[in-house]
Amino acid sequence: MRVHLPALTLSTALLLTGTQALASPELAQKKACLACHQMDAKVVGPAYKDVAKKYKGQKGAEAKLIEKVLKGGKGSWGEVPMPANPQVTEAEAKQLVSWILSLK
Prior knowledge:
By secondary structure, the chain is mostly helical. The protein has helices spanning 10-17, 24-30, 48-55, 61-71, 90-102.
């Protein structure tokens, strides 16, 4: 007799392996990104939706923004610099940037 089990969802599989990935808004909160950025409104830095709009379709945008999250930068959005974020891993930066660029 064969027993058919439903396929595991990605989140269930991650929970079972002990490496639960945070949803990007939760990760942005955890890594203190939301102290300077919001989804729809400029705070200290630009709104995430404005970032997505600015970089939409640009070749190399993801790599450029990952580097900016990790190392900081200035000049893209005015005179206020974005500080480096040593508390963010490269994998987390990639997750955050992919989420931001997917916003509409």
